[in-house]
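Subject: Protein record for review, amino acid sequence with backbone structure tokens
Concerning: The relation between a protein's sequence and the shape of its backbone.
How to read it: Take the token row as a discrete description of the fold.
Enclosed: The protein record, placed directly beneath this head.
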Amino acid sequence: MSILVTGGAGFIGSHLLDRLVSWEKNAVCLDNFNDYYSPETKAKNIKDAQASDFIELIEGDIRDRELCEDIFAEHDIESVVHLAAMAGVRPSIERPLLYEDVNCAGTLNLLECAKDNGVDKFIFGSSSSVYGVKQEAPFKEEPLIGQPISPYGATKRSCEIYCHTYHHLYDIPIVCLRFFTVYGPRQRPDLAIYKFTDLIERGQPIPVFGDGSSKRDYTYCDDIVDGIMSALDRDLEFEVINLGGGSPVTLSQLISLLEEALGKKAEINRLPDQPGDMPVTSADISRAGELLDYEPNYPIEKGLRHFVDWYRGVMNKLQ
């Protein structure tokens, strides 16, 4: 029996595959290697995992019904960790129809396959973007009173609703994990921590949207993988659970911490606030603690040091 990991060549997915290999778990990685960022980078992400006897890579799209049906039938899929999605708040404003098609139609396709093949568990990678701007911090899972302010956030919330519907109709055990600003080695190069690190290291100005007071609950990738693995291991029927770092910091604080980790001063290019960006994200992780024994092990200072070490290692190999 195998675990299907969609988006397994991406940032979070590749770290999950590494963990599954270390636990000697069989998994199928489904990824379409789109060009949102370098497909070559994604191939490198899973090189070590793919070299093991536990991971099979299949290149394809979650919207391809025939392909997904074949995967479920041929690989005896017992659990699904669905991480594949069009990501990013700002790009979703420019291409909302694509985000709707990939994120919602793709998730529905996988839920149909899960229903038809009687999977034991379906883990959906959701986002703090579902909360919008009306939720009181720290964000609690229930009741959800926030309203998404980007197409990306709207698709993630729609997928959560579809997940609940399929649990209700077909008794599929489903856990929706709301990830809060995940960072660490292999993260997408367009995200703030990677972009800022690269620019500061090269002595170039960093683009800072707004006055620096926006807050994010940064969560290190290993903590997220801990939460996913725990969700796979628990007998839960339907749950929505925050996975966050638990200690939000302002954008200005983040820049100061990066300067400290890099030993270099940042030059700031101040820009207007961007539409779709949430002013604050803050996870109440008490439910994760109760249901998953989740406890973050990487405070932001420790996580940034690990990221900077990884980044400099990658850059040194390129020189």
In short: The two ends are 43 Å apart (CA to CA). The chain has one domain: 2-182+220-246+277-297. The chain has a mean pLDDT of 93. The chain has twelve helices and 13 strands.
